[in-house]
Protein 1
Amino acid sequence: MDSKAKTANISSFQHEERVFPPAAEFSATAHIKSMAQYRKLYRQSVTDPETFWAGQAERELVWTKPWKKVLQWKVPSAKWFVGGKLNVSANCLDRHLASPTANQAAIIWEGEPAGAGIHGEQRTLTYRQLHREVCLFANVLKRHGLKKGDRVIIYLPMVPEAAIAMLACTRIGVVHSVVFGGFSAQSVADRIADCQARMVITSDGGFRRGTVVQLKKNVDDALALKDAHGELLAKTIEKVVILRRANNDIRVVEGRDIWWHREVEQVSADCPAEPMDSEAPLFILYTSGSTGKPKGILHTTGGYLLTAKLTTKYVFDLRPTDVYWCTADVGWVTGHSYVVYGPLANGATSFMYEGAPNHPEPDRFWRIVAQYGVTILYTAPTAIRAFMKWGEQWPKKHDLSSLRLLGTVGEPINPEAWMWYHEVIGGKRCPIVDTWWQTETGGIMITPLPGATPTKPGTATLPFFGIVPEVVDDQGRPVPRLSGGKLVIRQPWPGMLRGIWGDMDRYQATYWNEVKGSYFTGDGCRQDKDGYFWIVGRIDDVLNVAGHRIGTAEVESALVSHHEVAEAAVVGRPDELKGQALVAFVTVKTGVVADQKLREALRQQVAREIGPVAKPDDIRFAESLPKTRSGKIMRRLLKQVAAGTEIKGDTTTLEDFSVLARLGSSEE
Ligand code: WT7
């Protein structure tokens, strides 16, 4: 990885520091009530992690067999609660059935077409009801021969059945891999091929901004795609389960495709939870890296669930009366840990919304907050910046006084957006928890605790219990406070990834070689005088576009797969709304006319290969790409060019890098 010297670039503080003490209400009632209490427990958790984690695992989770060893650790392989057995769905559902939680709402859902009406599409599932649905669907999986360890793809809109399908898998030890509905048929096929899935669970569509997303059609296309040798990519798929959601006209393939609603009529609602090894694979979630195709991040059972449960409990300070809403899609890790597993393990009420924040109007979120009495809202800075742009009049139309805690995740939040969230949405009374973590970490790693930590706009503040982050230089030595470096994690933690599916060498190379013996996050960071961690953003070739993680290499390979393209280089440029925007520099083959039509064709190509989320915002044609003498594309230079004046809409200027290349060559 080429992150050397990049860390030197991280500039010094430019923020005027404002400190917000924890709200009195939280300091009185939250689990952690003061900095002194946080510091004491934190110290215990890192000086004797095994005792700390054993205590938490015993208190928080129901085990069917106790573990023999808390941690078995040899870089880069961690095993937590070795020998222990438990079941995730039993911890999220069955354990609540003997308590008053049984009849509380586990999931409250609203569909997008509900629009403004109070008679729109809403569903509430109590824990008891959710338990029944999960048992039924787990029996459907069994009926079709799925067994412990088999892999299943879930490609669904944000509907309760997404959570039901996930939990049903965990109930019988099937490993799920959720694919975000915004990814293409090609991405679905690649993921099926990579994890050799036996089944796809999808729907006849889902609603997004008033239109129907053609999920089933994408699955049909995925199952017909071939690799370079003419072999079907997704040949391991035996069955496709279709959820009726959009009443959309779809193709049903006899013998392969089955309807969810018909299947559950044919099975019993009795399905005992399978005791699973603590280290049994729980799910695979694909995420972009700096090279090649997305990596299948593997999480396992006991450690992941403990991390999800504990972080949800302490960071969001959940109470039985809360209506907790994490706006992430289940296709991302935030949806796994903070829509499904964390809240349900805590017996909380998790609110789910299917659609876009501005459908039918830009006040949809605030309408929901007021209508359902949402108390905790967890969303992304990119969404907050969009709300800012749409204007205060939209939240002002609604009574947001039910809110008591706000959270953000996915990218650094700029202090302006933080302040707007605090004032306009939080009415100046709600603490904001800016939570830093990654697909790989399983759960929140650096975060304020609302009853204890004074916050400052723009920083995720301090590490969660048991987490040992450090900012280091290129040699792996800790840097002094106020100077920039790479963010690493020094000690293993229960929710950490256990590997990359099918590629342990890549796991070692990506995360453990950059700084010997430590987990490398890929992020640049610095600590301020109080030890608060300020994440600067990715220092590898991964972009964060509107909170979505996109690998430049993937987009480049999608672009060069177009027959008229010779070379492509993709970089990020700062974007007011999305955090980063994607800029592609493209050279075309001899004789090809680089025009607006080609530009559009290339955007479509990327949408087809990866998904609409990865479409470049800007495509610039160049005579040649600036390269070093050894032939490496000078990305730093391209970043500067991209960040400079934007090329106007449909002029198709060819950029000439010959001068720039000479200027920049000494830097790379
Ligand atoms: C990358 C991980 C983890 C949930 C969603 C994203 C960036 C995430 C923050 C934050 C600054 C953040 C980092 C990280 N990031 N949260 N609070 N402040 N940056 O998961 O897709 O795996 O992306 O998102 O760059 O490495 P992901």
Protein 2
Amino acid sequence: MIENKFPGKDITDEDLKNKFPLAAKKNTNHKSIITINGCEIGGDKLAIFAGPNMVESEKLIIETAINVKKSGAHFLRGGAFKPLTFPYRSLKYNETREQGLKWLKKAKEETGIGIVTEIMEEKYLDLVCETADILQIGSRNMQNFPFLTACAKTNKPILLKRHYGASLRDWLGAAEYILYEGNNNLILCERGVSVPHTHRATSRFLLDLQVIPAAQEVTHLPIISDPSHATFWRNWVRSMSLASVASGADGIMLEVHPDPPNSAVDPLQPIDFQEFENLMQEMEIISKHIYKKSIF
Ligand code: PEP
Ligand code: MN
């Protein structure tokens, strides 16, 4: 039997050496700092990713880019290609796909903000790479190994969201597939896990705050937290964002929309520009106080 030096955890010394040697820390101070579009992730700053769930229109994405940048966000998030849970589409709910990518590009041209957007199919890699500074691999694709390899080979920075049923060990295994291709610009994103009681009166997912210090212990990769997708409920986004900062995350991803109740997707989830601005100020206080890291 293999001895587990970390009681209560599923990651063994053997895993660190042989299953994900590239993702594993080489010593306690080993930490990767990734620079994208002039912004450091994993260094002395807290990185902020903000924007709507879906790139709904040109006006929406440009207005959001201007506002989140003004409040200090480093990256604009937004899906032109979206993994929607059900196959039915209304006009409002429709993905904007190639058109949405063009609007994201315009938002970057007008504001200079870096773009993170989801890639769902290998055939769109070239197209998405033209616009994205960071390729987002969504939860649902976390263990699509040939897809991870194809994304890694583009050498674009990658944001790998954790599947809501994946252990830290599974997640680091997926990360290893990307690092194995020589792509070291990799960021991990916790976005909530699925546990039986979350399907009842609380929320759709449970933000796994413990995975932040757990990951910081074993991997050198930057790790960020997405409280919006985890809580699914804007009233809890503020407290869970502050808790994520306190937990030692290297960055926070937030859904921000000019008119949250009218968001085309998941309208209970996004916060508005003023709430985002207030939250940025509060995250700055926590981050500076505990970790001496600033957002700005
Ligand atoms: C998203 O960030 O838009 C998204 C779909 O997230 P996840 O893959 O975490 O569900
Ligand atoms: Mn979403």
Protein 3
Amino acid sequence: MTKDYSDKLPTNRIFSGVQPTGNLHLGNYLGAIRNWVRMQQDYECVFCVVDMHAITTWQDPSALRKSIREVTASFIASGIDVKKSALFNQSRNPNHAELAWVFNCVARMGWLNRMTQFKEKAGKNRENASTGLFSYPNLMAADILAYKATHVPVGEDQKQHLELTRDIANKFNNDWDVSNFFPEPEPVILGQAARVMSLRDGSKKMSKSDQSDYSRINLTDDRDAIALKLRKAKTDPEPLPTEMDGLEDRAEARNLVGIYAALQDMTSEQALAEVGGKSFKDFKEILTELAVEVLGPIGEEMQRLLNDEAYIDSVLKDGAERAQAITQPIIDD
Ligand code: TRP
């Protein structure tokens, strides 16, 4: 008879994974981190810095350690409550790797061959890609299912991996004749997540890999740096429009209005009702004041945390213990 595990499923558990790429910026904050902070109110949350995913491509060891601490610091500085949510790096809970091996034996070659991210990341030289890069989605499925997470916040680029996770959960349940052992986790598409563009070119996403540091506001930037970057941000000669259609072919204006709106949790329409008609000179002053007010304290807290490695490491250790306390009984089952 099919054994049913429904009573062991959590109702509202989020698993979020983030790559340890240092240098988080305003785009990461408005597009992701800020939403995760808010999800803590309604969900039991597990936040994981996925260092084992990072090493699917070459990482310099000391740079990787530094990035793990930086990402952790930015989460804490942005308001992740480490008493409430587990925050840790993946490699410290061995259950992820354990379950990933089982999933290597559940997922099919054909399934992984369809993953578009592998094709992009491996590029032309597939023969030389690590096998870890190929089986990356199985580890991601293990991250999520080791906690029986019910919800996973993901961006567009990770949707395919989440679908694979559901396929793995299903096949596992079928193969071993269990029902609801693993849940089929739902994507949480973050409400109108702000798409923050480069300050130098409104058609490109704000990115940590952009050559120019003036293209982005880093979470570690202090008040002066924020003000300087916004002052230098690219604009056009016209004052701000009063209606949304006036932003259509003005990528830079649209981006700055979008940032202004997101920083105060309003829509761009609402923002234009306030600042439409202003010159860029006046608008940039208001925007700078707002950005400094919201981001200044985060940057300061990050600097403070980064000077206290022992504290960050203790958070990660404690988080890993709490994480394993959730996953070990599931692995044992
Ligand atoms: N693959 C995700 C990314 O590149 C990171 C990740 C790893 C993840 N494990 C996860 C995201 C589990 C959500 C859930 O962004």
Protein 4
Amino acid sequence: MNAADQIFAMLRESSQSGAPLYLQLRRSIEEAVNRGLIGPGDALPSERDIASKADISRVTVRKAVQDLVKGGVLVQRHGSGTFVAPRMERVEQSLSRLTSFTEDMARRGMSVRSVWLDRGLYAPSPDEMMVLGLSSTELVARVARLRIANDTPLAIERAAISASVLPDPEAIGSSLYAALGTTGNRPVRAVQRISATNLGDADALLLEVSSGVAGLQIERISYLASGKVIEFTRSVYRGDAYDFVAELRLTGPGEEIRP
Ligand code: GLP
């Protein structure tokens, strides 16, 4: 059976459910993907074919397909149609170690490269002044990169560092932490805040996912041993690529809970 037949077979199965048509269609496509009846890269029949074969309106088909594109199940390529999305190999990332992107990927044997989105010296924003402890007359070095592992774009990272620590952001090689390490400024502690986000058009385009899909917004503030803040980084990670894992322990009697 080809992809179209698999979907229509699933649709016949679900037509007894009495659920709205667009939901039935959405579930049928999802089910066909989950059961492996249609796989990554398979083309979906055209909107017109689905509509006429299943005897439902094109508006209904479009609604179901758009939902699945938003959910990352399908991808749309302009001019060539709709396809089952490639399956992502998820990266499991510990939340207890202060490592760099380069180190994280190297440990997994993945190749790393970055596309520079911005690097330069700027007047600091109010946020940057507050977090990095800068005055309005000082400058901030901004380093923004698209981080790519094994040819898959995983994250967009926008780091801000005091220009007194990083006077020449152009001189960073492939790793920011390695560059900070050469001047004895590699952070030793960090506080990281992770929150859910829906990717906007520009970020989604860079990360090669559909606009509006789920992503993770991560803010890292890292410190030197002296307690001085060294890095303020705001990142957006692909939600389908990362699992952040934290180990939790029951505190023993008499042990303090420290923040
Ligand atoms: C991680 C952190 C960033 C940090 C980066 C440094 O991805 N989330 O806050 O700036 O590592 O990575 P690299 O040394 O590879 O540039």
